[in-house]
Design a protein that fits this description.
The chain has one helix and two strands; from the N terminus they run αββ. By secondary structure, the chain is mainly alpha-helical. A hairpin with a 2-residue loop joins strand 1 and strand 2. A two-stranded antiparallel sheet has the order 1-2. The two termini are 51 Å apart.
Length: 122
């Protein structure tokens, strides 16, 4: 895109107005950028933590690796991943909605391929 220069008072005042708008918006943009950078750092730290938890859990069950060959591969499947969005500095970012699946918890998820997932109101 070529820049078109005009040397008159009208175009000069128009360029001055555009410059003023951009200078007024700059602090807001800098704040948004720093907030998003902070969220990226938090997300990377959370990802690293979850990765280390997964590695630790896999190491705990390493001795059972030989048993996995005896099971049918389609016995367990992921039915649904519950994701939501959160606004950070005016930008929608994805975030996982944590769902607890245990025998004593209120929320349960079903993993069998033929079963329908339970939907409970929050």
């Amino acid at each position: 895109m070529a820049i078109k220069f005009q040397y008159n008072k009208t175009s000069l005042s128009e360029m001055g107005k555009q410059l003023k708008v951009r200078q007024n918006a700059l602090p807001t943009l800098k704040n948004k950028e720093s907030a998003l950078r902070l969220e990226v750092r938090k997300a990377k730290a959370e990802s690293g933590r979850l990765t280390s938890e997964l590695d630790a859990a896999l190491k705990r069950y390493d001795y059972l690796a030989a048993l996995w060959n005896e099971f049918e591969p389609g016995l367990i499947a992921v039915m649904d991943v519950d994701l939501g969005t959160v606004k950070v500095a005016g930008v929608k970012t994805p975030q996982s909605n944590k769902r607890i699946s245990n025998s004593s918890g209120n929320k349960k998820t079903q993993c069998h391929p033929t079963a329908k997932p339970e939907r409970q109101a929050a």
